[in-house]
Amino acid sequence: MSATVVPEILAALEPYLEDKDRAWQAQPEGSREPTLPCKRENGVLSIHVGNLVKELGINPEWRQHFKKRELRAVVNAVCRTQGLKGIGEDGPVADADAAVKKVIVRQGADNKRLAEQLVEAQATILRQRQRIAELEGQLGLAQADGVLLRTAPPRKA
């Protein structure tokens, strides 16, 4: 039965979407509101398939067929134009999640780099402290014995 349902739905859907798109295009560009039936989900406007089916005047049980690729693609194309989350799309929430994940990954990489730099700096400080202790020891011996230490290469005459 669904083989014949999709063409019937498309026959009603395509002119409907063209009318809704024309109505949307006719609105002033700065203040356009979606003309497709929509609902707010988690702060995001998305297509309301139930109301779409009612406005099309088709069998309410055919709502399930809008998950099929042929119907979903046609509806989602107009949804994207109007800034709505389409059928089966994650929408801006998923985009925001992806952006947050990207920031977390970048910060993790930055933290790793900074941790490596910290370890290197601590190792350098430890070597410098050891060298200072050696030099202080040599200086203490020189002062105790009254020996002069050469700090520069001998001058050529």
Describe the protein in words:
With 157 residues, this protein is mostly helical. The protein is 64% helix and 5% strand. It is built from four helices and two strands; from the N terminus they run αββααα. A hairpin with a 2-residue loop joins strand 1 (38-41) and strand 2 (44-47). It is rod-shaped, with a radius of gyration of 36 Å. The termini are far apart.
Q: Which structural class do you get from the secondary structure elements?
A: mainly alpha
N- and C-termini, Cα separation: 109 Å
**Cα shape:** rod-shaped
Instruction: Strand order, main sheet: write it out.
Output: 1-2
**What is the number of E strands?**
2
Mean pLDDT: 86
Question: Count of helices?
Answer: 4
How much helicity do the residues have? 55-70%
Strand proportion: 5-15%
Order of helices and strands: HEEHHH
- Alpha carbon gyration radius: 36 Å
Major β-sheet, in short? 2 strands, antiparallel
